[in-house]
Amino acid sequence: MKTRLGMAIPIVLTFVVVIMVFGFSIVQLRTESKRLNLLTFHYLKANMMAQAGIQHAMMKIRLCPDEAFEAAARQYGICPLNDNPPSASGSGNKDLMNIFISDMNCSNLNISGAEGWGYEVKNIETKAAFRKQNRLVTVVEITAEGWAVEGRGNLQKRTETVKKTISIFKNNTG
Amino acid sequence: MPQRMIHGTSLVEIMLAILILGIAMLPIINLLSRTTGMSRQERTEAAASSYAGKLMNQFLNEYKWTNITDGFISGDGPLDDDPKSGIWFKWTGVVKDAWPITQDMAVNRTQYHTPCAGACSGAIEPLPKRSPKTINPTFCSRVDVKDIIFKTIAITFQWKGPGDKDYDEVRQMVLVVRRAMLDEANK
Fold first, then answer.
1. d(Cα A64, Cα A59) in Å, to the nearest integer?
2. Of A87, A94, B72, B154, which is the most buried if we count CB atoms within 10 A?
């Protein structure tokens, strides 16, 4: 009987401690969830910038398909002037491609709220070259890097890389 | 005598316990109600990031080039087009030329030579930088192109969840992407 009478305060204190632990867990969960949302926003910003880099590369390839083909073929080890090239080693001269991608970048978007964001096409690598009917085809992989700055949550700068594979054709050969 | 003392202690103890419980529960109840409200905010924010990503992908891949008009753009709507969701989005943005067609590009070519049998060792021609208009005048003068072949699309998203009276100026997100005229280019 004596031992049971002194249980009220310990029971209440235990209950309060349990409730407080529960409360703090919820706060912790909320903080994590908020940070996750911020990370998603940050990822989206950087990813969209990298997508812009891919679009930039594709715009130039569409505008200058012959020059793009030459650069891709040359870096694969094929002479772009040869309409019936032998099989190539895959390693050639990258000089033309380096010039081709040299202006595929942007570090100033002139958009309010997007200061310090940008993108750069890091590489266009020729993966394969083959003939398809009367066309020579090069398969290239574009690698673009995009970055964005997020001031909230001490996130600062995030960089995302996006790759895209496309084909570049040289028409009417042979 | 000892029996009465025990009863008295118990009453004081219960009163003390109620006091402790009351003092401890006040901030906890406050915390829980705040947390519930904020988790609603986070749910709205998660929906907002998903909505923003979807809309940007539509601008990037789905909308017709001619439908992305230059200048200011805006829109709004509920989550999943369902007003019952209670989550609303509003976006405003700007579309502008990212690469004027008179702006030079770095373009070089292989100098003419007898075709190599293996890896190409021919010199490259140091062509002057040329603009899209010079490289592909037919394409650039097309009606659909309207002298723009590369667009910057910058959009600011705002959102409000159930219980929010208006869009919060603090909670907003800017997304920027660029879109090139691609499949339409060779028509």
1. 9
2. B154
Residue in B132, B108, B119 with CA at minimum distance from that of residue B185 = B132
Residues of B in contact with A20 (CB under 8 A): 24, 28
Q: Which residues contact B13 (CB under 8 A, 6 or more apart)?
A: A5, A6, A8, A9
Confirm or reject contact between A5 and chain B (CB < 8 A): yes
* Residue-level pLDDT at B167: 86
Residue A120 · residue A53 · CB < 8 Å: yes
- pLDDT tens-digit map of A37-80: 889 999 999 999 999 999 999 999 988 888 899 999 999 988 88
- Interface confidence, given as ipTM, is 0.84
* Contact flag B105-A86 (C-beta cutoff 8 Å): no
Q: Rounded to whole angstroms, how far apart are CA atoms B53 and B160?
A: 17
State how far residue B131 is from chain A, nearest Cα, in angstroms: 10
Contacts of A62 in chain B (CB under 8 A): 180-182, 185-186
Please write down the HEC assignment for all residues of B153-167: EEEEEEEECCCCCCC
Q: In this complex, is the C-beta atom of B15 within 8 Å of any C-beta atom belonging to chain A? A: no
Kind plus residue range of the DSSP H or E element containing A156 = strand A156-170
Question: Among residues A131, A132, A123, A120, which one has the least CA distance to residue A72?
Answer: A123
